[in-house]
Amino acid sequence: MNHKNIDLRQISPWRNDKAWLSSCFSPWLSVWFSRLVMVMLCALSLLAFKPFAKDTTNNSNSANNKATQQAQQAQKSVLRVLVWSGNENYLPRAGSPPNLDREYLELFADNHGLNLEYIEKPSFEQLIPALLANEGDIIAANMTVNTLRQAQVDFTLPITETPEYIVLGKNNKPLTAAKDLDGRKIAVQPGTSHAITALGLANVYPNIQIEQIPAKTTRDKLYDALAKGEYDLTIVDGNIIDSTLKYRDDIVKSLQANVARSIAWAVRKDSATLKQQLNTFLRQQQLGAQQDSESVTAWQTITKRRTIRIVMRNTISSYYLWKGQLMGFHYELAKDFAKQHKLRYEILVADDNIEMFDMIKTGEADIALGFFTPNQHRAEQGLAFSRPYHYASEQIVAGPNDPPIESVHDLKYRNIAVRKSSSYYQTLMDLQSIIPQITVSEVPEEYDTEQIIEGVASGEFDLTLADNHLVDMELNLDTKITPSIFIGKEKAQSWIFKDGNNQLREKIDSYIKRTYRGLFYNLIHKRYFEADGLIDKHHDAYENLQAGGNLSPYDEIVEKYAAQYGFDPHLLIAQMHQESRFDPNATSFAGAQGLFQIMPRTAKQLNIIDVTDPEKGIHAGIKYMAWVSERMQEQDVRDDQLTWFTLASYNAGPGHVVDAMRLAEQKGWQRDIWFNNVERAILLLSQRKYSSKARYGYVRGQEPVTYVRNIRRKYLMLKDVVTTAH
Known about the structure:
Layout: H1 18-24, H2 29-34, H3 36-46, H4 56-60, H5 62-76, E1 78-84, E2 94-95, H6 100-111, E3 115-121, H7 127-132, E4 138-139, H8 147-150, E5 154-155, E6 160-162, E7 164-169, E8 185-188, H9 193-204, E9 209-212, H10 219-228, E10 233-237, H11 238-244, E11 251-256, E12 261-263, E13 266-267, H12 272-285, H13 298-305, E14 307-312, E15 320-322, E16 325-327, H14 329-340, E17 344-349, H15 353-361, E18 367-372, H16 376-379, E19 383-385, E20 390-398, E21 415-419, H17 423-434, E22 439-443, H18 449-458, E23 463-467, H19 468-476, E24 482-498, H20 502-515, H21 519-530, H22 555-565, H23 569-580, H24 600-605, H25 614-633, H26 642-652, H27 654-667, H28 674-684, H29 688-691, H30 702-725
Parallel strand pairs: 1-3, 1-4, 8-9, 8-10, 14-17, 14-18, 21-22, 21-23
Antiparallel strand pairs: 2-17, 5-13, 6-12, 7-10, 7-11, 15-16, 18-24, 19-24, 20-23, 20-24
């Protein structure tokens, strides 16, 4: 359903232009407006918003506190960062990363030799009081700048800007004009900028009702409630709703609720030096427009908006979310390209190659990243190609029990499945002209190459043709396939952009020239396509366990933290063996480290450094398990199922598990039972049909399914060993 996009800036009480406001409303508005802030402050208390009053104790001791804080930072080199636990990570499909401000802050910390200590608060409204109470040095929580907050804290230069929009369920009564807000109910979380916007709207339209929703309500729970009609309206940031509409069609973006607002970091008003350093850093990250020619080029447009828009697919080779971290070979290249040119980046997700190329041709995206082979057909569509950034040979892929294929003549009477838009199709057409007995089947465009390979493994397809590095990746993922003969010569692969964007071409080619086969390129290529064991293969039993003996080299440490966080130590030992085989120096393809394979960023957020130290690594793993368990409890998982949901979330990330729970419910399965219910749903999320409608996107569901089942088997074995010993 489409609605006219009415701009509600006309009714925003935050625009400081009295003459303009008077022309929009009435002569008495200027008097009314002068009282508005006081009215809103009163309304805040009625909505149970906690006022951010300055602590007089802190005033009297500010000099001492400041000196103490400086001494602590000088000694420990720690920057304490206040964050909101509800500021979820997700897979952006249209816009900047969800935690862009944290990414920038981590770069700032690296530049200044600081360690970041993350301090989570369960509700957004607790962040500013915590900052004023000196619990942290800075707030990095996608915080919108507004006058009420500016009265309490200082803000840095903007990191980005976004307007807010009214959002409603697809079947809810639509809004066609601002006056339609009268009598409607807006659901918002307390302490957020959305709540303040709602208050402003209610002052203009007094019949608006404001409904508070729990601070820990996830966005998808809110959207589900809108879709079901449980809530009438809500308010969402523009960049977030644009990304959401890429995977949900049961909610509607309606009227613009205010002008674009700045997103910035918050510091105390006595932190002038820190603010100055942060602003200096932000200026360095933001280039102005370049004027290399008289006409405005595509590159000048990019640098003026300080953002590069890159389209790719949500696949395990390009771009996906794993353990709450955005990953993928092409994503890493895109992020590095933006960093090298001091640009922000936005990732757009396309369902197939045709959509990617259309987004380039229409100017919706600047660059398309994939394993694209330059050809005449694509050039005739107005697409241009960079210098080669990758080379691949095309390889026949057969099933696990197929007889050997020794030459192209063994392909007679075989059926080879590929997408028509792929370069493989033209290769096979050329081959078919020589050996007409070969059958070439066109699979749907939304199938990515990895999915077709998996189809060969399962018997859905007879054969396929794929780039050799993708075949290697699937073998490392333990996909049951047989790699076979190569077809044709090695082919160059390029980035794609719109023909005529010569200055953009120069920037891309220059980047590829200095990056290709350099240290960074080689590391990420090895990580995604050459490293063994993307999925851990620790399926062997504990043959050397002696009844009554130690279960691991670290039993005492595990028992210590198991007691602290409330876990069964036998479960944790089984998990530790699955993760690292008790090797404290183990490192995964993605950079996870230590006995519990913790990501470095996660370790930082847990305030634990050097997880290769056995005690610290065990503490980090169990502490993260506790954090994940809390997230699953918020999803109303049954007590007897919490262990399995927690393990699945530890492996794949809570977001993918929540997506699977929603999908299980849609399928009529139990959303609060893991085995044979939610585990069935998470397997489906590796299929484009389902992952394209999931907030966190593609996940290789077999990994968490195998992970949980292996740990359960080992756990029961350990329990049996202990029981037998007694």
